[in-house]
Amino acid sequence: MAKKVVASLQKATKDRVKCIKMVRSPKTGAYMFKEETMDKSESADFFKQK
Question: What is the pLDDT of residues 10-37, one digit of tens each?
Fold first, then answer.
């Protein structure tokens, strides 16, 4: 049964990517990682944001 669930999830998520961006914290100055899962077409907008 688990194989069927995994197979159906793979079909639905082929156009999705996980984007990870390193961002500097305004309070401490330390670097943090901001990550999101989104469509491939939205990934360029994600990296353009500050």
Answer: 665 578 889 999 999 999 999 999 999 9
The candidate with the shortest Cα–Cα distance to 17, out of 33, 41, 1, is 41
Nearest of 6, 50, 16 to residue 36 by alpha carbon = 16
HSE (CB half, 13 Å, CA atoms) of 40? 3
Give the CA angle between residues 7, 13, 14 to the nearest 5°.
95
Q: Considering all CA atoms of the chain, what is the largest pairwise distance in Å, rounded to the nearest integer?
A: 48
For the entire predicted model, the pTM comes to: 0.57
